[in-house]
Specification:
Blueprint (H helix, E strand, L loop, with lengths): L1 H17 L7 E3 L12 E3 L10 E2 L1 H5 L9 E4 L4 E6 L4 E4 L12 E4 L9 E2 L14 E10 L1 E7 L5 E9 L3 E11 L6 E8 L3 E8 L9 E3 L2 E3 L1 E4 L2 E4 L7 E2 L13 E2 L6 H7 L5 H5 L15 E2 L3 H10 L4 H5 L3 E2 L3 H5 L10 H4 L15 E2 L6 E2 L4 E10 L2 E8 L5 E7 L9 E2 L1
Parallel strand pairs: 1-2, 3-4, 19-20
Antiparallel strand pairs: 4-5, 5-6, 7-9, 8-9, 9-12, 10-11, 10-13, 11-12, 13-14, 15-16, 17-18, 21-28, 22-27, 23-24, 25-26, 26-27
């Protein structure tokens, strides 16, 4: 007991010898500074931490009459415990499951330019950026850890993102856009990486012409901006009508089916096209096809972007089934043309102004027409072997179907602006 008492006196004497004042404040440090006015004990170090008593659970329970606020580290469970006198209990000091991750070692750009930058979606003056407005660039990572990249604000908008690198090498990072571009112009951004240097990239902001009429093939189409995409707001109606008994062929002439071989149905619902007929003049998945210049056939991913802008999650959009909640109702339009059902009864019906119409289907199996008023089917330019990928709306569902069907089926077509 005498040895312990002498040791305690020595420790206290050493601590007080570092620094003290009339209020019995103590500072333990190597720079001779006084303790902070708010602290009874001020411990400073740039190289070491402070340890509290480390005890097993049984040792903690054996403490007699613990004081209110007494703290120990429990070695059995790796927890900091504090005694709460009012509850007469030891309680865990809770913390999250995550770990402190040190900053990564990485660089962005090559020679001052952001390497392999991809500017995603369209940018229009006066139109607020949405989730699709992102920029993807490369980071060269040599040590894993946290990262943070942000740009300056130019023309009313900027890009930023944070994350954690879990592997080294060249990693693609995506910065989310925020704000509203003010003027149509080319904007030069400087991306600044926390601890990783800077690089530059450019974004072109266009004049927002979406919403004006588009004249194509002797017919006017209204257009609608949904998120960052400009869509035709009517089904495409281009080409020469042929009988439903004849397959469309790549003969240099655009051919279309009109439901029940009635031209008036094409005027109202648009033409019905087989996948290969729609894709002629295309050189890739997002080629122009039979769309007007400056427009193209939408890929499966572009339609996913549309659906997610209307509320679908990424996992829902990726599914091959009936997906989402009421995005189908939002995409549909002109309730009087739809068979009464869940689709046109939903409060969100028609709110996107995409105005999908139930133009039905020309069946390849028997050359007959089916389901006008009940179904709207739209090709995408994406394919899966002998099948083309499409979207389907039905009067009895508020959701959107994503399916693959035979390319010789005849369905409706929409175009999206380049």
């Amino acid at each position: 007991m005498r040895i312990f008492t002498k040791l305690l006196v020595i420790i206290v004497a050493i601590a007080i010898s570092y620094s003290y004042n009339l209020n019995a404040q103590v500072s333990i440090n190597t720079d001779g500074s006084s303790p902070d006015a708010s602290a009874i004990l001020d411990v400073k170090s740039n190289t070491k931490g402070m340890l509290i008593p480390r005890m097993t659970l049984n040792e903690i329970r054996a403490i007699s009459n613990p004081a209110d606020g007494l703290m120990v580290y429990n070695t059995d469970y790796g927890l900091i415990l504090i005694y709460i006198l009012a509850d007469n209990k030891w309680k865990e000091v809770k913390y999250g499951n995550g770990e402190i991750s040190l900053p990564a070692t990485y660089t962005i750009g090559t020679g001052g330019s952001c390497a392999n930058t991809t500017v995603n979606a369209n940018y229009y003056a006066g139109v607020a950026l949405v989730a699709a407005n992102t920029v993807t660039l490369e980071a060269t990572v040599t040590q894993v850890g946290t990262w943070s990249i942000t740009t300056n604000t130019v023309n009313g908008y900027y890009f930023s993102a944070v994350g954690t690198f879990t592997t080294t090498g060249i990693i693609q990072v995506t910065l989310a856009g925020s704000g509203t571009p003010v003027t149509a112009q080319t904007d030069n951004f400087t991306a600044t990486a926390y601890g990783g240097g800077t690089c530059t990239f450019s974004v072109t902001v266009e004049v927002n012409t979406c919403g004006s009429l588009l004249s194509y093939g002797g017919q006017n189409y209204t257009t609608v901006l949904i998120g960052s995409q400009c869509w035709m707001a009517q089904n495409l109606n281009i080409g020469t009508m042929i009988s439903g008994n004849t397959n469309q062929t790549d003969n240099g002439t655009i051919e279309k089916y009109c439901y029940n071989n009635d031209p008036s149905n094409c005027s109202l619902y648009g033409g019905l096209y087989q996948w290969n007929e729609m894709m002629q003049y295309s050189t890739g998945e997002s080629g122009q096809g039979i769309c007007p210049a400056g427009w193209h056939l939408p890929s499966d991913n572009e339609v996913k972007t549309l659906e997610m802008q209307l509320g679908m999650s990424q996992s829902q959009a990726d599914a091959t089934s009936w997906r989402g909640t009421n995005e189908g109702s939002k995409l549909a339009g002109l309730a009087s043309l739809w068979t009464d059902g869940a689709l046109d009864s939903d409060p969100g019906f028609g709110t996107s102004n995409f105005a999908a119409l139930p133009g039905g289907l020309r069946s390849y199996a028997n050359s007959l027409f089916y389901n006008m008023g009940d179904y709207a089917l739209f090709w995408t330019s994406s394919e899966n072997g002998a099948s083309g990928r499409l979207r389907e709306l039905i009067y009895s569902q508020t959701r959107v179907g994503r399916f693959d069907i035979n390319k010789f089926q005849g369905t409706s077509v929409r175009c999206v602006k380049d």
